[in-house]
Amino acid sequence: MSSSSLVFLLYGLTLASIVATIHGRNLKQSMHERKKQQLEQQSYPPPPPPPSRESLYLASLSKGTVPNSSPTKHHHSFVVNEELIVRHLAALDRILRSVPSPGVGH
Prior knowledge:
mainly alpha; CEP13/CEP14; two-stranded antiparallel ribbon; elongated; 58% helix; signal
């Protein structure tokens, strides 16, 4: 007798959990549909189209001025002179060039 009541109890618990899960899913789905209907009833302007890849690339480039890196409150900016950068990189290339030590081979 106790085994049949145990089986009935397990069956009842399983059925209750399945029904609760299904009911919860239905509630969530109906809430989602209700919210979707409310949004459709409201008239919002259409969203702007996504920016093209080229405009994102151009927007990410610097505009010619770089803020001063000193910790002052003035934040002066200056125009980057590309010729100075090229000269600096050329000087670094000469400095970093591999040169044998004067003591090698003696």
